[in-house]
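Changelog excerpt

This revision adds worked examples to the README so contributors can see how folded entries look when concatenated. The first example is reproduced verbatim below.
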Amino acid sequence: MTPKTIRSHLAPYSIFSKRKTTIAHAFASALAPSDEYDEAKIEAALEALGQQNLKQLSCVYCERPAQTWDHLENLVKNGKLNGYGHQVGNLVPCCRDCNSQKGGKPFCDFINANANLTDSEKLNLIHRLEAHLSLAKPIEHSNLNSEDQETLTKFFTLQTQILKLMEKADQCAQMLRIRKMAEPSACQAALSEESCPDQALRCIGITNR
């Protein structure tokens, strides 16, 4: 590490830039379908997946001891729910290294890029994972009735409003940083309703006078 690496830590923090993806993921996760815990169903699915020791699961990608669970299909795609969720067929045992390296890549692409596997091993693994994924049924918003579609629209409207408030909060924070050395009364006068909503001001303990 060199002294220059401190530069990224000295930049102002942006709520919107740093957390918009987190918010999108949270909203998508809230909509994502999920399975109930069924031990017999889970064990059968893992055995079909090729797991030989259910007391110590192995990473499906590299066969090292598993430490976490990987979603074969990401919950979020382009900021929206992908259709799949927290389902037995969409979850596979995985080591932390493979989970991190795979990230948001399609599992087929991740496997095909693995130089440690032969072409035959890649093909067999992909087929096995595709069979496992077939246990998960993705939801289609286009199949919702009119009442549920209206509720879904309200849901996404709330997400948009939250993101806009995060941008407003960034504006407030920037103004406060710029005026941090000013007199408190001058700072409060500068933060008008047009530039910073009353709700945001109350959140940071400042009220217009």
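The second example, added in the same revision:
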Amino acid sequence: MSTEHTGTDDAGTDGASTEQQDAERPEAEAVEAVEPETIAEAQDAELEDEPDEDAEDEDRDEGDIAADYIEELLDIADVDGDLEIDEQNGRTYVSVTADGESNLSKLSSGPVVEALQQLTRLAVQAETGEFSRLILDVGGSRDARRRELEELVVRAVQRIEEGAATAALPPMSSYERKIVHDLAADRGYLSESEGEGRDRHTVLQAPAADEQQD
């Protein structure tokens, strides 16, 4: 009796289980059919919402990279200053200025500005992989340096007028040599760069006699 009863119960259970599985199968198949599309749509939505970090990095140009680096240096040195970025003839110019009372003068001396400029160029090059030619000005240091170059040119011209065939100026960067060339040309004198590497400098000379007559 117990064996027949158990067989009947198992058959009933198996039948009910089969019917339940058959009833659930369409829903499972429907879920399986919809789920990949749903996941793909959700992933696309998440990607649209997330910022494109690669695109943001591509938008960072030389000026932005330099400004971020200089701001960190100012914070480390506890110096107040405002940054201005400009681009002229393919070269980036970054100026650090301050209104009213400021301790910016701590970083505005020629040697310090030159060192900061080199460090900033290296920071830009490290991120972009390209050589940087940016010019840094701190508290008007660029204008002050131009005045110094003007004085050097005036002295060189005086030496030539006193009988010297040529007058050599101290070694300087390509940017400063360009300024010297312009200053010499404005005074009617010829100039050329000589030397290699850190020893490269500008030499002034009077124009030829026929050029003076013209």
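Reviewer comment on example two: The chain has three domains: 2-50, 60-139, 143-213. Residues 1-9 have pLDDT under 50 and may be disordered.
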